[in-house]
Write a structure and sequence with these properties.
The chain is an all-alpha fold and 519 residues long. The protein has helices at 5-17, 28-51, 54-89, 94-100, 106-135, 143-175, 181-191, 193-203, 206-213, 219-225, 229-241, 252-279, 297-305, 309-324, 326-346, 352-371, 373-376, 379-386, 391-420, 431-454, 463-516. It has two domains: 5-279, no CATH class; 325-516, no CATH class. The radius of gyration is 27 Å and the shape is globular.
């Protein structure tokens, strides 16, 4: 009897992942399981003992019992987003055409891909669980209880991965039928984490922990949380911890919930495969030809800001290309969203200098995102400008103005958001700093553009982009702290503006020089 098709696909995925260790591939699963067992039962407790004394370890174990519900809830949603982010970030149709010619169902492909990558995620899940169980060690739980805790984490988070895999497949099917499907997918891959962060921020606060630990907490809240399998897993773990060393003392409810977790995982697999066979299509889809519409008032205004004529038309066209890529808009929305969440839940600055610090940090990050588009669009675009008369200077001017038109309004909006959610900051004292922050933001754009021309990054996933991001952000932070340390708050902003512009002009000139000599 031949193996199921999904098993063959999973085996193929496993062979791809372990292609670099062919010699020990047959023994690799046993080696990994043994290494993880040693880590969970011996190495993780040893690491915790080294850095945490007995009293602190006991306190942490008590807190961990309360935190377990939020921890599992948080990880459950994060693991749902992982496959969605990876699948939508790079929608490919080449592999689909290979499957179309084979007599295979969509559910087999989905199950095969899922079980093929599950061992890698299981390693990560077990490592996370190892540190968690090590923190619970002062409560005197035995090895059987530790083993069940590991299984709970594996079942809960594996269920989340499968749910995320099914959602990603359905979204990928829908987007592959649209002309802008790849762009929409990349945008969703960035923005999808924002709602999860919005849920996690209040949960990670002390008020949420106290509320869950309080027996008087609203029954409606606890009932709503019981819908999620992460809460069932948390109840199983707390039931085990309540009777350390005695499995039988955990009670019938604990084992009933553990059985419910296993049933949920099986039901999720069954429902997911049925959905895949009905809605997950391997067809690449047919695209319609998009029609260009006349420029709106907004783009005509951009053209006039560029002085009209050919330069204004080129500026409007460059701005249009940038803003019509949803991937770019999603990064900007993500930056503003994170700033808003920080202002609501974490950042409680009551001094103007603290508002300025966060604004300048976000200015450097957004400048990197906007300036990076000059090289991420490909080397071909750079050479088109390079081969035209005065093309390099024109490219730099257009990209600089386009960056200012995007960056400065967003930074102004970020400052407004921070001040809005921190009413203790006197608005009257922020008039001059806001103007100087806008000036520094413009300098950040010049600096970032020069960095990307000097050290091109042709993909956002490469090390070059991350290196440029770190250079730009750390330079901004270092400049801010150095000026604050040696010159105080009075003269700091003006000095930062002068030094930022000096840095921006120098690197912009170096970037132009590098582009002219690029081969």
């Amino acid at each position: 009897m031949s193996a199921p098709k999904w098993f063959l696909i999973a085996e193929n995925q496993y062979r791809i992942y372990t292609s670099s260790i062919r010699e020990i591939r047959p023994y690799f699963p046993f080696l990994v399981i043994g290494a993880l067992a040693v880590f969970v039962f011996f190495i993780a407790p040893l690491i915790v003992d080294i850095f945490v004394d007995e009293l602190t370890a006991f306190f942490l174990s008590q807190v961990a019992v309360v935190v377990v519900q939020i921890l599992l809830f948080m990880l459950f949603f994060l693991f749902i987003t992982f496959p969605i982010t990876f699948a939508l970030g790079d929608i490919k149709t080449g592999q689909q055409w290979l499957f179309i010619s084979a007599p295979i169902k969509a559910s087999d492909i989905l199950l095969g891909e899922y079980f093929g990558q599950l061992p890698l995620y299981a390693i990560l899940i077990t490592i996370i669980t190892g540190f968690f169980t090590a923190i619970l060690a002062p409560l005197q739980i035995n090895m059987t209880q530790i083993f069940i805790t590991v299984i709970v984490f594996l079942v809960v988070l594996s269920s989340a991965l499968w749910i995320g895999t099914v959602i990603a497949a359905l979204l990928r099917t829908k987007l592959s039928k649209a002309a802008r499907g790849k762009d929409i997918g990349k945008a969703l891959a960035v923005i999808i984490i924002l709602p999860v962060v919005a849920i996690l921020y209040p949960l990670l606060g002390g008020d949420a922990l106290q509320a869950l630990a309080d027996p008087g907490t609203s029954g409606m809240v606890k009932t709503a949380l019981m819908v999620f399998p992460s809460t069932w897993g948390a109840k199983v773990i707390t039931g085990l911890v309540s009777s350390p060393g005695d499995i039988g003392g955990a009670g019938f409810v604990t084992f009933a919930l553990f059985g419910g977790l296993v049933l949920f995982f099986g039901a999720a697999l069954w429902i997911g495969t049925r959905l895949a066979d009905r809605a997950y299509s391997l067809e690449a889809g047919s695209f319609t030809i998009p029609k260009a519409k006349p420029d709106s008032v907004f783009y005509r205004t951009i053209r006039q800001l560029g002085g009209g004529g050919s330069f204004g038309a080129l500026l409007a066209s460059t701005f249009k290309v940038y803003t019509r890529r949803l991937h770019n808009i999603s990064w900007l929305a993500y930056s503003v969203g994170i700033t808003t969440l920080l202002s609501i839940f974490s950042f409680k600055g009551n001094k103007p200098i603290e508002v300025i610090m966060l604004s300048l940090l976000m200015s450097a990050v957004i400048a990197t995102i906007v300036a990076g588009d000059v090289t991420i669009r490909g080397k071909e675009t750079l050479f088109i400008f390079k081969k035209t008369p005065s093309g390099v200077g024109t490219l730099v001017k257009i990209r600089l103005i386009q960056g200012w038109l995007v960056l400065i309004p967003i930074v102004a909006g970020i400052m407004a958001i921070i001040i809005l959610f921190n009413p203790q900051v006197p608005i009257a004292s922020m008039a001059a700093p806001v103007g100087l922050v806008m000036l520094i933001a413009a300098a950040h754009m010049a600096f970032a553009l020069g960095i990307f021309l000097l050290m091109p990054a042709y993909t956002e996933r490469g090390g070059e982009f991350l290196l440029n991001l770190m250079i730009i952000v750390l330079s901004s932070v270092f400049l801010f702290l150095a000026c604050l340390r040696f010159f105080g708050e009075t003269q700091e902003l003006l000095l930062i503006a002068l030094l930022s512009w000096l840095l921006g002009i120098v690197f912009l000139l170096l970037g132009k020089w590098r582009l002219r000599r690029m081969e």
